[in-house]
Amino acid sequence: MTINIRRATATDLDAVAPLFDAYRRFYGQPGDLPRARAFLAERMQAGQSVVLLAERDSHAVGFTQLFPMFSSVRTARMWVLNDLYVDAESRRGGIARGLLDAAARFARDDGAARIVLETSVDNTAARALYRTAGWHEETSQWYALPLDGG
């Protein structure tokens, strides 16, 4: 079965939204398909994110969402790979790796200086995948200040 990965458009929202909702549930958020769809629609319409959609036999099986960021030091665009999700029944078939590679190609073609992502230290499967795909763990530390009580 062939996997096709392409940039999603507004016409793909009904296919991507359930995957995005499942991704949010995976991270402990309550299921809310209308909210997931609205978030994606707003980001895509405003040009605030790029969604890459993985399809197998014309069925949506995974996605990644990238957000633009800029580096003052590099005076260049960067991309943050913020979300990556593959439907449970489609895992272990190379789709996540395909999405990572497609995201890197997109960022490179866009002229970005780099692409970054963050994952938890205990997510050993994801960390192994990222290393296999050529990503490097850095020694810098991200810090967070919750502004919404969460």
UniProtKB/TrEMBL annotation:
<keyword id="KW-0808">Transferase</keyword>
<dbReference type="InterPro" id="IPR050832">
    <property type="entry name" value="Bact_Acetyltransf"/>
</dbReference>
<dbReference type="Pfam" id="PF00583">
    <property type="entry name" value="Acetyltransf_1"/>
</dbReference>
<dbReference type="InterPro" id="IPR000182">
    <property type="entry name" value="GNAT_dom"/>
</dbReference>
<feature type="domain" description="N-acetyltransferase">
    <location>
        <begin position="3"/>
        <end position="150"/>
    </location>
</feature>
<keyword id="KW-0012">Acyltransferase</keyword>
<dbReference type="InterPro" id="IPR016181">
    <property type="entry name" value="Acyl_CoA_acyltransferase"/>
</dbReference>
<protein>
    <submittedName>
        <fullName>GNAT family N-acetyltransferase</fullName>
    </submittedName>
</protein>
